[in-house]
Amino acid sequence: MKTLKYLLMSLVIMTGLMGFSSCGDDITRVTEEYYTGAEATNYNFVVGNSQNKWVWNAVDGRYECFFELNELSSDIYNYGSMVGGVFVNPGLDNEWLEMLPYNIIFPQNGTDPSYSVRISCAFTPGEVAFFFQPSDMKRNDNILAEYEFRITLMLDQFNVPK
Asked: Which helix (H) or strand (E) element contains residue 120?
């Protein structure tokens, strides 16, 4: 009888100890602070209109246009991401945003090789540049057009060294 009494008492104590130690508030606690990820901001630029003209660079064989972008900080440049795109067929039903660099190929007649244009961008802190480079790297103002670009700057504050 005494053995049964000790056995039951031990069972009750063991069950109680297991109940208190198995689930703590570290598992069931609700956190009110959420990590939402990187902050992304879009900026649109138009090149080739009367305000922002393409400028020929004879050394590099391309047209260029530079914009001040103060939001492109050294933190974003060093620890974030910069993405560029160009709108194709802007304002039409079949508009889309093409990532840069974007190559446009113009097929020629049977014997002439194809002609292409490469549209790209480059970044430095505080500035973004857009480039329009013909495949023959020769100046031809007749092929210039107006382009709308989108730049997205992204920065995850948790990746910036303190």
From this structure: strand 115-124
